[in-house]
Predict the structure.
Amino acid sequence: MSAAEIESTEPQVNPMVHVIAPIVAFGATMLVRKVLQTGYRLVTGTEAPDTRDPQVKFTRALTWTIITAATAAVVEVEVYRFVNKRGEHTA
């Protein structure tokens, strides 16, 4: 396969995707964090740990940070992939 053939198979992404995707990712991330906090409260009966509170044990704060950061990263990747895929069809 030549370089010209490889370049011609690159998807054409609508430029608006670069504006829309971060906004949608931010909103989806905030929604998922709220769902995680509600789920934590339902399962444990207590509020999710405030990682800025020095009274919260380090391991508990770190565990909660890892869970929320990993979930937020997955949501962001999925949103970007979804919006980019939708943007290919409109370009």
About this structure: Residues 21 and 80 are 6 Å apart (CA to CA). The chain is about 75% helix and 0% strand. The radius of gyration is 19 Å.
